[in-house]
Write a structure and sequence with these properties.
nine-stranded mixed beta sheet, Dihydrodipicolinate Reductase, domain 2, oxidoreductase activity, globular, 33% helix, Rossmann fold, six-stranded parallel beta sheet, binds nicotinamide-adenine-dinucleotide
Length: 384
């Protein structure tokens, strides 16, 4: 069967630019049955030398140094946004208005107002869209969803999730500029809340339903850092650490923590769900494994099962190697690219959509507001 092409225009060639480019390349080899295949049509970044070399390295047919030019091109079907957060809204809205499909990195925006505007414009333009909350598509996390949905855990009482790092402890690190935009509230919107907890929140609501209200505290441990753009010592306005608890719509309690000051932890994303009949836990550092406790097991052998999620009948794994062989972080992006292509074939949405990501943004904003005002906040989340 002759394949249909989805001509990709990718903007931003840093960390995520690489994971997405890898995904588009790999999906052709490992999901050969899809009706649509991506064509790496153009990549955009501001520095010509760098973007040219990126295009050569990853196989893009052309490059641009101005994202507006990329969006105006007739030979681009889908715009993929891999830039810092402050660029997402402008690019996504312009791409939607130009009738392009929009794929966007998380968090979709710096704040709720921007996110709402993006969702409204995407709806008006009626273009296909998805947001790269990629962790949903690690096979062990997808299996967790299947187990929860099957009812095997029974009524859920607790949901717990952490995302811990330690890379900003050095007080001499600057804020802003190309390398440290995450430390600059103007570029990032928030600190760990939008950068890390957004992942925990998206996965939590996907697995356990809407988060209704939150009570949070945040801390900025280093109060001033030199700004790369001005060379001056300026106040740090992002949250370095955040802890919040919440109620889910299903009556369960949630507890979340994130920090970039958790010495020894590089990217420790964990989740645990405790239900009446069983529990699940997962850890990004051992990402192929899902721990499952089934209370209906015979008592003398009852205990936590460690499921190595690598068998052909487990999510996505029939596409890879043979049972027992692991896959990695990058495969979650390959799976999302495959699911997006599949959604074109099935004429379905590819979740999480911008609308879904807006709900995550509502929780992030409520968390920040709660920490500032020192009171519980309703999220007004509508999760279906
Ligand atoms: N899904 C995930 O697990 C995950 C992980 C990391 C980052 N992210 C998200 O991905 C996005 C990018 O993060 P990153 O780590 O790749 O950042 P990065 O700093 O590594 O890369 C950003 C890229 O955007 C380019 N850029 C900046 N302004 C631009 C402009 N005006 N025009 C064209 N290009 C421009 C930069 O040159 C750079 O190539 C962020 O929104 C971040 O939150 C998601």
């Amino acid at each position: 069967m002759k394949k249909k092409e989805l001509r990709i225009g990718l903007i931003g060639c840093g960390f995520m630019g690489r994971t997405h480019s890898n995904a588009y390349n790999r999906v052709k080899n490992f999901f050969p049955d899809l009706e649509y295949q991506p064509k790496l049509q153009a990549v955009c970044s501001r520095n010509e030398e760098k973007v040219k070399s990126f295009a050569d390295q990853w196989g893009y047919a052309s490059y641009e140094t101005d994202w507006k030019t990329l969006i105006s091109r007739d030979d681009i079907d889908a715009v993929d946004i891999c830039t810092p957060n402050n660029m997402h809204a402008e690019i996504a809205i312009a791409a939607a208005k130009a009738g392009k499909m929009v794929l966007c990195e998380k968090p979709i925006a710096r704040n709720l107002e921007e996110a709402q505007l993006m969702v409204d414009e995407i709806a008006k333009a009626n273009v296909r869209n998805t947001v790269w909350y990629n962790y949903r598509r690690l096979p062990a996390v997808t299996l967790a969803k299947k187990i929860v949905d099957s009812g095997k855990l029974g009524k859920i009482f607790h949901y717990r999730s952490n995302f811990l790092q330690d890379w900003t402890i050095n007080e001499n690190l600057p804020q802003g500029g190309r390398a440290f935009w995450r430390m600059d509230a103007e570029a990032a919107g928030s600190g760990v809340t939008g950068d890390l907890l957004a992942h925990c929140i998206d996965t939590a609501m996907w697995l356990n339903g809407g988060i209704m209200d939150v009570s949070a505290m945040t801390e900025t441990f280093v109060k001033q850092r030199v700004h790369e753009d001005t060379g001056k010592l300026q106040d740090v306005k992002i949250d370095d650490a955040c802890i919040f608890h919440c109620h889910f719509e299903n009556g369960s309690l949630g507890l979340f923590e994130s920090s970039r000051y958790a010495r020894g932890h590089k990217a420790l994303f964990t989740l645990e769900i405790n239900g009446e009949k069983g529990s699940l836990k997962w850890d990004l550092h051992d990402l192929n494994r899902l721990e499952y406790f089934d209370n209906s097991d015979e008592s003398i052998i009852r205990g936590w099962r460690s499921i190595h999620v690598t068998d052909g009948d487990q999510p996505y794994m029939d596409k890879w190697w043979v049972p027992g062989l692991s896959i990695g972080y990058e495969h979650s992006f390959v799976h999302q690219a495959a699911d997006f292509l599949k959604s074109l074939e099935s004429n379905d949405v590819c979740a999480p959509t911008f609308k879904d990501a807006l709900e995550t943004q509502k929780v992030c904003e409520s968390v920040i507001d709660s920490a500032v005002d020192k009171e519980w906040k309703n999220t007004n989340v509508e999760w279906t």
